[in-house]
Specification:
It contains no helices and four strands. Strand 1 and strand 2 form a beta hairpin. By secondary structure, it is mostly beta strands.
């Protein structure tokens, strides 16, 4: 099932809106890192 996902970088505040898959309660978008090279500190939430 494809869903809309909002990602917020906790380091620089950059926001991204992507489409992802929700499987077994986990969201997968393929997003790897922010423009500020942050790879770990994100808020990821499903957008309705």
């Amino acid at each position: 099932m494809r869903i809309k996902v909002k990602i917020l970088c906790k380091d620089c505040g950059e926001r991204f809106i992507l489409r992802g898959k929700k499987e077994d309660g986990r969201i997968e978008t393929g997003f790897k890192q922010c423009l500020c090279n942050n790879r770990d500190h994100f808020d990821i939430e499903e957008d309705f």
